[in-house]
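Input/output pair, single chain:
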Amino acid sequence: MSSIRQIKAFIAVADLKSFTQAAEAMFMTQPAISAQIKSLEEHLGVPLIVRNDKRVRLTDAGQIFYREARELLTVYERALESMNELKSLKKGNLALGASTIPGEYIMPNFIGGFRKLYPGINISLTITDTGQVVDLLYDRKIDLGVVGAKVETNHAEYFPILQDELVLIAGTEYPIQEELSSQDLSSLDWVSREAGSGTRNVIKDCLSIKGIKESDLKIVMELGSTQAVITGVINNLGVGFVSHWAADVFIKAGVVKQVMLPDLDLKRNIYAVISKNTAATRARDVFLDYLLHQNKG
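Output:
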């Protein structure tokens, strides 16, 4: 198989019409460049250059090959340039996934900041529940995920990037005290996120520490988004746990109220998650570093 080096040597000799000048241009000796041309001709099975003492001349086959070789070299050099742009993140694609809270309240800011640094990177974001984010990683449909809880798997690696706190909210007309203990929760009607969501998994773990099973709660409605839970709470269908990022604006607007739970620690980490079984890309690694740097800041 002809090498790019052989093709470059042939083009240099054809352009300069001199083995000596071509050798100097390619920082090679004249015997070395002659050997490259000879090897290329042997591979193609036709002579490309007529050699004599006066001048270098292309054969008919050499003229045809020269045109194709020039085009091939242009494509090759363009490909190298594209690879260099990818390495320097001047171009590229980055597929992200996120669970609801980070996807709706955190990632837009992070993505905006990252694109200011690397405007040539095209970024897509899929928002779904935590379990699905990990599945998308495993199926190689996304490069990196951001989730509010860990999913037990040997295929994923997690990096804490932020801390969130879940708060208990109720509608302004819902009959409830301003402060409760965890043991009071089983008497309430609950508007809950669906099974598999990071919020629900964290609540389940926190309550289990207090000896409360999820089955002890009276869940009257399961909804697929944090916004839907808040809407249900506003309409006094029950109480619900949501991220403080989502709740704050509604608490300040006076359409829901926060119920304090002093005996429950409802803080949780927000994690970046990558697959252990997928080859890293430059864009993914730089974005992960960016997320971790934001955490330090």
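The chain has three domains: 4-87, 92-160+269-296, 164-268. DSSP finds ten helices and eleven strands in the chain.
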